[in-house]
Amino acid sequence: MSDDSVRASSVSGHASHTGRRILTYGTALIILALLQTTLMPRFQILGITPDLCLLLIPGIAMLEGPETGGALGLSAGFIECAFGGIGASALPILFFVLGYGIGHLSGRTLSRTFPSYLILAVSLCALRPAVTLAAIGLTAQTSDYDLTVILRGTLLPEFAVNFLFSLPMYPLCCKLRKTVQKKV
Questions:
Q1: In angstroms, what is the C-alpha Rg of the chain?
Q2: What is the pTM of this model?
Q3: pLDDT at residue 86 above 80?
Q4: How many degrees, rounded to 5, is the angle at CA 177 between CA 13 and CA 166?
Q5: How distant, in Å, are the alpha carbons of 34, 50, 69, 159 from that of 152?
Q6: Cβ of 118: how many Cβ atoms within 10 Å?
Q7: Cα(26)–Cα(176) distance, rounded to whole angstroms?
Q8: Mean pLDDT of 53-71
Q9: Residues 103 and 73 sit within 8 Å (Cβ to Cβ)
Q10: Consecutive H or E run containing 21
């Protein structure tokens, strides 16, 4: 076999793996976005719809690395803006930074295990109420908001519901990764 044919089969195998990765993770992301925007609002828990797209990012980024994590985060941000009807927002940039950062940490600081994923999930589930609180603060017309009511009625339920839905995400991410890595 010549060097050119070895290189061509290597490039072809890499392209096939990349294609499977895009197809698998892209399909999962679109299904989760559809669930998040169509079905989940009808069955809210504590009045909260979980952010399924956000919860997929740490598992995939942890298992696949910064490039895939960043690409998935960016895609999740755009898809969530489009499906959620928010229009243009900073979500794609925020989700990109999260995906890339988590992917970068996973190979160096964090092991690729369920306990490490839980640490990331708790952090992301705390980030979501922090963004909600900032939005409340920025859009408030007066300062008559009772922080304890907001904490009990919105922030804690938002954390709890997102954390509950983050638990099955890591096994889902592991299953998706096995699908991507299958030899054809």
A1: 19
A2: 0.80
A3: no
A4: 155
A5: 28, 17, 33, 11
A6: 15
A7: 11
A8: 92
A9: no
A10: helix 3-34
Question: What type of residue is 139?
Answer: T
Question: Which tens digit of pLDDT belongs to each residue from 6-44?
Answer: 444 444 555 677 888 889 999 999 999 899 888 888 888
Q: With contact defined as beta carbons under 8 Å apart, do 60 and 68 qualify?
A: yes
Structure tokens at 86: 């928010």
17 contacts: CB under 8 Å, gap ≥ 6: 180, 181
Q: Which residues of 25-48 are buried (b: 16+ CB within 10 A; e: fewer)?
A: beebbeebbeebbeebeeeeeeeb
Distance CA 120, CA 98 (A): 10
Cα separation, 136 vs 146, whole angstroms: 11
Check if the beta carbon of residue 157 is closer than 8 Å to that of residue 46.
yes
Phi-psi group of 182: left, alpha or beta (phi > 0 → left; psi -120 to 50 → alpha; rest → beta): beta
Determine the residue type at 62.
Answer: M
Closest CA to 128 of 106, 98, 167: 98
Share of the chain above pLDDT 90, in %: 34
